Amino acid sequence: MKLSLSGLTALVLLSACSVGTNANTELVSLDQAIRMASGGVTSDEAARGVRRANAFQGRQYRIGMLHARRLRTFLLYLPPQFATGGALPLVFNFHGAGGNSQQQSDMTLLRDKARREGFILVEPDGTPIRPLLLRRLGWNAGTCCGSPASRQIDDVGFVKKILSGFSSAHVNRSRVHGVGFSNGGMFTHRLGCELSDEFASIAVVAAVVADQEPGSSAKAYACNVKRSVPVLLINGEKDNCIPFAGGQASCLGSSHNLLSVEDALAFGRTTTIAVLTSLPLSR
């Protein structure tokens, strides 16, 4: 990846000031990370079956790439199984509004799961939810949230570009999954619609579909799925930020009019197999 001097300056500022990154995490390109984890084997060589002896034990990298004239970053965890050859599953993990990849990583601990189960973990950073609030990031999920939505940031294209950086020798493209929290969950819904041919399943926590305002027929994006995508929704009945019944929600200093969880269940599907509305706190 080639970056201009101004791009490198922005890269340093972003990594140091905006996303709360671990100071020990080196900023590299996706191809550099893959090559280091593969013992120097390039993506093209891996596609031809080239392998080299490697004592790789798994590592997290912070990746920088340019997309739509913006510098974008994400955390990438490659498990020990990456170096042994064979295409692995890949899981995207999206943070909520006001968060970032490092916070989401620390909160969900999916990296530990990725190491045990042998899947690649990608935890991307959104863009500032308000101008100059560089440490509070969000996603363009349609009608929510903040600047990413109002400025129509191409987050879907960003995800597609990340996927395009992996060869079929590294990623099993039939086993790409997405999980997201809050605004990140809303964005995961959108990916299930617009990239249904890329995602095998999605899981959404504390979020609903944000393709339109309740009572409005105007759509922020179209859900023209190319294939059915299994969806897991996890929502709380006492969540004030994402009301179970929908309507006005006020959090992170802004107000949103959201669809209900029931309407989210009806979104882009023809049948519902089962709906679990509550969980016991104890057995």
**Shape assignment:** globular
Structural class: alpha/beta
Rg? 19 Å
Number of strands: 12
As a percent range, the share of strand residues is 15-25%
Tally of contiguous helical segments: 9
- The SSE order reads HEHHEEEHHEEEHHEHEEEEH
The helicity comes to: 25-40%
Question: How would the blueprint of this fold be written?
Answer:
Blueprint: H1 5-17, E1 27-28, H2 30-37, H3 43-47, E2 59-67, E3 70-78, E4 88-94, H4 101-108, H5 110-117, E5 120-124, E6 127-128, E7 137-138, H6 146-150, H7 155-164, E8 171-181, H8 183-194, E9 201-205, E10 231-234, E11 247-251, E12 254-258, H9 261-266
Parallel strand pairs: 1-2, 4-5, 4-8, 8-9, 9-10
Antiparallel strand pairs: 2-3, 3-5, 6-7, 11-12
Structural summary, described in words:
The structure is a single chain. The chain has 283 residues and is of the alpha/beta class. It is built from nine helices and twelve strands. Strands 1-2-3-5-4-8-9-10 form an eight-stranded mixed beta sheet, sandwiched between helices. The chain has a two-stranded antiparallel sheet with strand order 6-7. The longest helix has 13 residues, at 5-17. Residues 1-24 have low confidence and may be disordered.
Brief summary:
By secondary structure, the chain is α/β, with parallel strands linked by helices.
Pick out its properties:
283 residues; alpha/beta; 8-stranded mixed sheet; two-stranded antiparallel sheet; 9 helices; 12 strands; 27% helix; globular
